[in-house]
Specification:
Order of helices and strands: HEHEHHHEHEHEHEEHEHEEHHEHHH
Helix content: 25-40%
Structural class: alpha/beta
Number of helices: 15
Length: 398
């Protein structure tokens, strides 16, 4: 059609639309190549915009994926119109990007944050994400476990590309995360607890570690202990690694990260598992392993289980030594225990027994949080050493 019009001396005004919710990078490339062939004298590009009254527009509005309100609609190719669309990639294509190389190199991440009450912690987490995640095209998938009043979180997340999912009841960490996974179309997925505060460049550094190592499937950051906290949050805790950073040195999170980046840039640590307080996972791993095992219900040992499953497919799980975030430690579990009479020791015991039976393990590969191993010294313990040490430690109620 373009050839015929041009052969008759005509000029072409062509409208093109990108940014449909189901659009793949291949679709975007095909549209761009079509536009190249047509070579219109007056090309007009637009982003799909969920207008009220249109069938697809109403669908996006009802599902909460529209990022616009009824007073602000503009189909022009800038800004964000709907959740789940990789606008960074689209803009690169509009600037001339063609071919498959960028498809392999580009990264896009969904950050799944399950919440149950503790609004102030969630708000602090979201503010830190917005401030310190500036170089990556990301989306927050907020899965709320029937918290009730979420007005503070709604206000904090309003300026962030996000998808909100409301659970009818408190179905726990595992079911909330699985709901988020099902909604994701990203190359990488980050599980992030709402009682965390992230640091500058955190997500980019974690994703780059995954990109450098084809066998690295799951990576997590170090964590900074919160002063006055009731327990160590996990084996991520920087206090357990005196060779990386002196445990008696009190500095800001920003200062700690600068020191870690200077001395340990790109260094990874072998660990028995990465705790899902903050973990970035390649989508290819999730495609093979599947969802989290729902037998772990509210949570505990689900992360050990998943790392073991990933290892069956040849993937490793490691910590990134040059990246540190802050984690308060079991905020939701403590709330459930203190206010709703959830028996945390019983939950831990039940999930431990299930995991041991499932994997035929003599004991679990998780570091208890109320005590430290006597032999951690300057390296992370191997699975074998961890198991031997774990045998000597009795679970106690926190």
């Amino acid at each position: 059609s373009a050839k015929i019009i041009k052969s008759a001396g005509g000029k072409i005004y062509a409208n093109y639309m990108l940014g449909l919710p189901w659009e793949t990078q291949g679709d975007i490339q095909a549209t761009a190549r079509m536009a190249d062939v047509i070579s219109a004298e007056m090309p007009s590009w637009a982003f799909f915009t969920p207008y009220p009254g249109c069938e697809l527009g109403e669908k996006c509005i009802n599902e909460g994926t529209s990022l616009l309100d009824r007073n602000h609609y503009d189909r022009c190719p800038y800004g964000r119109k709907t959740s789940g669309v990789n606008y960074t990639y689209i803009n690169e294509v509009l600037r001339g990007l063609r071919g498959d190389k960028y498809v392999a190199d580009h990264f896009h991440c969904d950050i799944i944050i399950p919440t149950y009450k503790n609004e102030d912690l969630t708000v602090a987490c979201l503010k830190s994400i917005k401030k310190h995640t500036t170089s990556i095209d990301y989306r927050v998938i907020w899965v709320d476990n029937a918290s009730g009043d979420t007005s503070k979180v709604e206000k904090a997340i309003s300026g962030i590309n996000h998808l909100r999912i409301d659970m009818p009841t408190n179905e726990g960490f595992v079911n909330a995360v699985n709901k988020g996974i099902k909604a994701s179309n990203a190359s990488f997925i980050c599980f992030l607890n709402n009682d965390t505060v992230v640091s500058e460049g955190w997500l980019e550094k974690l994703i780059n570690a995954l990109k450098r190592d084809p066998k690295l499937g799951i990576v997590g950051p170090m964590t900074m202990p919160v002063k006055g906290d009731r327990l160590y949050d996990s084996q991520h805790n920087l206090s357990l690694y005196p060779s990386l950073f002196p445990s008696n040195c009190e500095l800001s999170l920003d200062a700690i990260n600068k020191i870690l980046e200077f001395y340990h840039k790109g260094k990874t640590l072998d660990v028995s598992f990465v705790a899902f307080l903050c973990a970035v996972i390649k989508m290819e791993v999730i495609n093979k392993v599947g969802l989290l095992d729902t037998n772990y219900a509210l949570g505990m040992w689900d992360d050990n289980d998943y790392c073991l499953s990933a290892s069956k497919f040849g993937y490793t799980a490691k910590l990134l030594a040059d990246t540190c975030i802050q984690h308060k430690g079991r905020s939701t579990f403590i709330l459930l225990q203190d206010q709703e009479n959830i028996n945390l020791p019983e939950l831990m015991k039940r999930n431990k027994e299930y995991m041991d039976k499932k994997w035929k393990l003599p004991t679990v590969t998780r570091m208890p949080l109320h005590t430290l191993p006597p032999s951690i010294n300057n390296v992370a313990m191997s699975n074998t050493a961890h198991l031997k040490w774990r045998d000597k430690v009795a679970m106690t109620q926190h």
